[in-house]
Design a protein that fits this description.
The structure is a homodimer of 577-residue chains.
Chain A (H helix, E strand, L loop, with lengths): L5 H28 L6 H4 L3 H9 L6 E3 L2 H11 L8 H23 L11 H24 L8 H11 L5 H27 L4 H26 L1 H4 L22 H33 L5 H17 L6 E3 H9 L6 H22 L3 H13 L4 H10 L1 H17 L1 H20 L4 E6 L6 E3 L11 E6 L8 H13 L6 E5 L8 H16 L3 E5 L3 H7 L3 H6 L11 H8 L2 H11 L5
Parallel strand pairs in A: 5-6, 6-7
Antiparallel strand pairs in A: 1-2, 3-4, 3-5
Helix pairs in contact in A: 1-9, 1-13, 1-14, 1-15, 3-12, 3-14, 4-11, 5-11, 5-12, 6-7, 6-15, 6-16, 6-17, 6-18, 8-9, 8-15, 11-12, 16-17, 17-18, 19-20
Chain lengths: 577, 577
């Protein structure tokens, strides 16, 4: 704050005003997408912005209603109450509250790393699939019908069934708005530039078209009385007061279900926010702290709940708008919040007669840019497993719903991870002549000892690779019939979990039954601390004096057959064969 | 077969007969536990045994009804049909069919590694939790009431509510059977030995007590007419013919739900079977092939479906009984199947008046030995994360149901794995004087070059650790203000996934913006093959001639500042400082 300059204040104020006008249509539209009265989109754009401006670590991330979060909100509450009803609104508030609590808790527990469960292909596939699902869902409102369903299949079937009941005036309004918005997004800036308008002004004007379209469409409804006369669906009235106050609390079962969904919605919002914040931070060399972001987003959702609104997240389009309008600091967000509050106070009556078809057109154009088939092509080409995760997530979202899609994506990613870790790297090692170093026999000229099989395990031992490591070691044992000592070099192992410990116990029994002995070498501190005190450790270190061999070299010196040891002495002579 | 000896035939036949008599009570009891007529437990012990004898890789694993699988079967079908009804039976058959198809498919696709999702603590916690849940559920039938619910909480509440309606005659029968069975399991063998009976005979007699109890209880019902006179619940009649034939096929939604449950039941049965088979194989030095087991268990479940029965798995108690009765080869299983078939044909009428309370007592005693608190104590002491996974799984099963428990367990295990991999090992490396080797600067006396920051990444780069690796590298960059080259030594990296690729792209942008260059050294073949052709690869290898540096040494020679290079020459002199 001390370094704040006066001209920044002007820049931030102008940016705040311009951005507010730019993003109002999306705020309204995403509230409708969530099954809520449009004005709630503005409610969700006041206090949450202030909360994030105070607590967030990104200078440019803009918080507010977001398409995928709105879709997930509708998916969660839809089965529990009728869209737009007081119960529905109250459940949305509770969902924002729970998402806020969940995110804040995760942030305070520093569990930000959980977001890493979602790989890039899963996030990208999820966003693309959700965008397509939203698009299909908005085709109904665009022509004046209300298809039902939570999957593209159900929505499509419902759409086809009702298509004969379309509303001509609605279709006309939507049919005018959609191509206009499309043209504004694709070609208008270039067209204006060619007509001699300055580039920044051209881009600014382009971004204001959505608001203009909404204003014109609302004017058309008011002047021609399209809502009463022609049956054009409009946004309508909003119940007064905080909705939670007149709600019976949901049942325990519903609350548990809401809590789970709130966690998923919160985490998804968090992941999307962080990836937006990071891509913006990259341009300005800022640093994003995931745990700070978790807490800030948690408080922003609590603020949204207090406002009587629904879950929010960091918005790519709002952030980019703010960034390119010249916002310098989070103060731009404060200005936005103030202007939005003025709009809510002064113009509420305006929204009542805003036609839903215009909002549907806004949503459709906004989500079109989220469908990123190029990412699928790139991931598929780079790595089949990543491509499959993208495709599985997107198809899961489209055909089975949002939460199924995320589950499938996480499942595929973890399966790929497990599959890779189920092929662990293990090398038979031998001594580099004349040294105390041991290297892979397959890649180096090294000396071995017939009595000793020395294996270097190159990965942590855990449930995901215990079985294949066990199998690989037993296969090596079978191939070394003359050996009597198995030395495991654990220099790269920093963790052995309970499953792997059980595997090593089994291995110890197995080698004993064959007349072998098992030894550990180069065990690292953390592993030593945990193994000490287990029966396995006592048994295995009996030969080496109660501790593992400090090095594979020590193990060789101690365990080599007498005759062999002599041969090794010869081999150690640099002039030897 | 050619090596089969004549005396083995006698041993196998005797073992087959004895084991059949030993396991009949459990087969009947687990069918009842699954909500099915008791006889189905015998149906499930004929064809599945033959199928496994033909296809399985274990010589001693006995297939049949298993407590946890029966519990999961009841949990899946319970909400869809009334227990014991023809619909219920038909759904159980379909469940066995789907489980068989799922396992067979996984086996043919060689996806046995999927079972590694279930770590030892999760399996152990699951079995203990399920055993407790079964125990609570059987207290009702033991005293003649029918509590409802799928969680220990619901079952307990239902039990307390109905406890006044207990049936005196049932309570008396069960109250006699339970301590007798308990004593037989705990003390009878020792008591017989002390009385001068040979040890093997004493153990054999002990194992026949459950059958004796069932026979005596049934005789009591028949002689005293307890079922009609006193209202003692009995097993009752079984519908004739294959149940699937008179079933309307379930709805699409129910089939999808069944398919998911069948997969979980199949995998759980598979995991339990393999761990039983492996602990038995260990004693006999046999080898278990998970993919062969998947296929064999799949076909065994198909065989159970054909028999009109329910999902089966490898049974610990049956295998141990068979093993200690002296079974030499799978032929013992064939003998068992034949004798069981004779029992089904000849004695069906007997089962009709068998009292359920005696079966409940059998189940309670059988599952008591599955509750393994010692495993929890051991895992907790060894590793908090493993202990938590045990506890979370067990509590999840008890309080939220079987599938919730498994999900919680897998979730906790994977969270621990992710958490560990989110702390990847990265070392700053320098040259060991006088050599071309590079080692960790924190642990070795090595030479570095101010212009070069060389980092060795010791783990595969993937979605689970991309963020922390990125952060760690940026922190190192900040600590080396005079360097201009970042060399990543990738000698231990054999995979980079799409998420990590995106991270490296971001890192490349970041270092360029700071006036640095990014380089790769010692990249391994598989990574090279995948990265070649990406924009990142082109950009990064521009300096090194279109390929990564073959070694960190080469990178140093090429990138060292001219002045530095000279210093290094001096340093390379063995007499230098």
């Amino acid at each position: 704050m001390t370094g704040y300059q006066r001209e920044w204040l002007v820049q931030d104020a102008v940016a705040g005003l311009v951005v507010t006008l730019m993003v109002v249509p999306q705020c309204l539209a995403y509230a409708v997408l969530a099954g809520l009265p449009a004005q709630l989109g503005l409610y969700a754009s006041i206090l949450p912005l202030l909360a994030y401006a105070l607590l967030g670590s990104s200078m440019t991330l803009a918080i507010g209603p977001v398409a995928v979060v709105a879709l997930m909100t509708a998916g969660t509450i839809g089965p529990l109450a009728a869209p737009g009803s007081p119960e529905y609104i109250a459940l949305a508030v509770i969902l924002a509250l729970l998402a806020g609590v969940a995110l804040l808790t995760l942030g305070l527990l520093r569990l930000g790393f959980l977001a890493q469960l979602l790989s890039e292909p899963v996030i990208s596939g999820f966003v693309s699939g959700a965008a397509l699902l939203i698009l299909v869902g908005q085709l109904g409102p665009l022509i004046g019908i209300t298809p039902h369903g939570q999957t593209a299949f159900d929505l499509g079937a419902s759409l086809v069934e009702q298509i004969g009941q379309f509303n001509p005036a609605t279709l006309l309004l939507g049919g005018l708005a959609l191509p206009l918005l499309w043209w504004a997004r694709r070609s208008m800036a270039v067209w204006l530039e060619n007509a001699g308008v300055r580039r920044t002004l051209a881009e600014l004007l382009t971004r204001l078209v959505p608001l203009l379209v909404l204003v014109l469409a609302t004017l058309a409804v008011v002047i021609l009385d399209l809502d009463h006369g022609e049956g054009v669906a409009v946004v309508g009235n909003i119940p007064e007061g905080l909705p939670v106050l007149h709600l019976e609390l949901p049942s325990v079962a519903n609350t548990a279900r809401l809590l789970m969904s709130a966690l998923v919605i919160g985490l998804m919002g968090f992941v999307v926010s962080v990836s937006v914040a990071q891509s913006l931070a990259r341009r300005r060399m800022e640093r994003i702290d995931p745990n700070v972001e978790l807490r800030a987003l948690g408080v922003a959702n609590l603020a949204s709940a207090i406002s009587g609104a629904f879950p929010v997240a960091g918005s790519m389009s709002q952030s980019v708008a703010s960034f390119s309008a010249g916002a310098r600091t989070p103060l731009a967000g404060v200005v936005r919040a103030a202007i939005t509050a003025l709009i809510v106070i002064g113009f509420t009556a305006v929204f009542e007669r805003m036609p839903r078809t215009a909002l549907a057109a806004t949503i459709i154009i906004a989500v079109l840019s989220l469908i990123d088939i190029k990412a699928l092509r790139r991931d598929w080409k780079y790595d089949r497993a990543d491509g499959l995760a993208w495709l599985g997530t997107a198809l899961g979202v489209i055909l089975m719903g949002v939460e199924a899609g995320i589950s499938i994506g996480i499942g595929l990613t973890l399966t790929a991870l497990l599959w890779r870790s189920s092929r662990p790297h293990i090398a038979v090692v031998g001594r580099v002549p004349g040294t105390e170093h041991f290297r892979n026999v397959a890649r180096h000229q090294v000396e071995t000892d017939d009595a000793i099989l020395a294996l270097r395990v190159d990965e942590n031992l855990h449930f995901g690779n215990a079985v294949p490591i066990d199998e690989r070691i037993r296969a090596e044992i079978a191939q070394h019939p003359r050996a009597r000592h198995l030395v495991l070099e654990l220099s790269s192992v920093i963790h052995i979990d309970a499953t792997a410990l059980r595997m090593l116990e089994g291995l110890d029994h197995y080698v004993r039954a064959q007349g072998w002995e098992l030894h550990f070498a180069q065990m690292r501190g953390p592993v030593l601390d945990k193994l000490r005190g287990t029966a396995l450790f006592e048994a295995v270190t009996a030969t080496s004096g109660g501790v593992p061999f400090p090095s594979t070299h020590e193990a060789f010196v101690r365990l080599a057959a007498p005759a062999r040891a002599e041969q090794n002495e010869t081999a150690r002579d640099p002039t030897g064969a």
